[in-house]
Design goal:
Length: about 400
């Protein structure tokens, strides 16, 4: 009689984690839950900051657990609101946590301080470490290493990790260009849950159509172009509304711009961030992503998975997900007039837009579902663990 296989014991490390919400945090949470559903014993290590500081360590609910078991525990490590002191305290507590238990592998979000600690702990304890950059370009991980405090030192240690996950061609290219071993870079996309019930159009939506953006209100999201496009959109749909759902440094400027353009109160709404992204998408008649740079947008994937029609900027990261006129519409970045025309076209030919939305949902089901992505991660993890143990 063979002994039952022990579940993989995985440490997933991300300094930010829900309820601190952004695209990278959402996808990491989706992956943690999906790996637990696949039977792994997953411990997420994150920082106890902001509203997360009030949350206790706990085992999360994992729906549809596998027959092998599967468990997800979130451990929030003490830090400090004082700059530098908080980072040092978090790194010290993370090192202690990774050294206190016998993990099979550590998977780390971003090539920053967390990665530095995890690679060191992996060396000392003998478990493999996989690092995951969350973006490319000026705001990406490799760029941060070139200019951040201790970035060069962190980069040297990060290059010693056992493997790297590239969510896009741009991330892979930047890693290889920065001296990371190309043979250890593995192409694994982001993944999102695919809801059982697809989006449905609202009765009478034409009277006051509603467009939605979800994400960080940051310069690279191109939201000034979207706000500038809105008076043009309202020339064809006078009651059209726009919601920018998220937080970020661009918020004051966007609010000011909407006022300067003469938008009545409530036409361009900035309600802040929410954890109920799916509900927000279902209340919209169009999802718009006007970014000037993206690795692989979680918000766009989520919109496609729900099945709401989309308009996105024609940049490489978005073109990887959306084929124009097949899964949604693409518009040139930094061009408010072209963006407005594309939004108006989607609403003016809504039957066609609805058909494209169903194609987008099918694409996510086939290629970017979190279940498929989690299984690909698990296979990589098992190979690395076996290699490490065999020497």
């Amino acid at each position: 009689m063979t002994e039952p296989t022990r579940p993989l014991k995985l440490a997933l490390v991300s300094r930010r984690y829900p309820p601190l919400i952004g695209g990278a945090e959402r996808v990491f949470a989706y992956l943690a839950e999906a790996l637990a559903r696949e039977g792994a014993d997953v411990t997420v290590f994150t920082s106890a900051v902001g509203e997360a500081a009030r949350l206790p360590e706990r085992e999360e609910t994992v729906p549809e657990r596998s027959r092998e078991g599967g468990r997800l525990t979130v451990r929030r490590l003490a830090t400090s609101p004082i700059r530098f002191v908080g980072t040092w305290r978090y790194m010290r507590n993370l090192e202690r946590a990774l050294s206190a238990e016998a993990f099979d592998l550590a998977y780390v979000s971003m090539l920053k301080h967390d990665a530095y600690v995890a690679v060191g702990a992996g060396r000392a304890r003998g478990f493999p470490v996989v690092l995951r950059p969350e973006g490319a370009g000026d705001t990406g991980d490799v760029a941060w290493q070139s200019r951040g405090n201790f970035g060069a030192r962190i980069a040297r240690r990060c290059r010693d990790a056992d493997a790297f996950v590239a969510i896009s061609k741009a991330v892979r290219s930047e890693l290889a260009g920065a001296g990371y071993d190309a043979a250890r870079i593995h192409d694994l996309p982001n993944g999102v849950p695919v809801p059982a019930r697809p989006w449905q159009r609202r009765p009478g939506w034409q009277d006051a159509p509603h467009a939605l953006f979800v994400g960080r209100l940051a310069p690279e999201k191109g939201l000034d172009s979207l706000v500038r496009a809105w008076p043009i959109v309202r020339g064809s749909f006078p009651n059209a509304r726009l919601t920018l759902l998220g937080e970020g440094p661009e918020r004051p400027g966007l609010e000011r711009l909407a006022g300067e353009l003469g938008m009545p109160a409530g036409v361009v709404a900035l309600p802040g961030a929410t954890g109920e992204v799916e509900a927000a998408l279902r209340s919209a008649d169009l999802f718009v992503l006007p970014s000037t740079e993206e690795g692989m947008s979680i918000a766009l994937l989520e919109a496609m998975a729900v099945g709401v029609p989309v308009v996105a900027s024609a940049i490489p990261g978005n073109r990887r997900l959306v084929v124009d006129f097949k899964h949604g519409r693409l518009a040139p970045p930094r061009d408010p007039q072209a963006l407005a025309r594309t939004i108006v076209e989607q609403w003016s030919t809504f039957d066609r837009a609805f058909h494209m939305s169903r194609g987008a949902r099918g694409r996510v089901e086939q290629m970017f579902s979190i279940r498929a992505v989690a299984r690909a991660h698990r296979q990589l993890f098992q190979e690395l663990i076996a290699r490490k143990r065999s020497g």
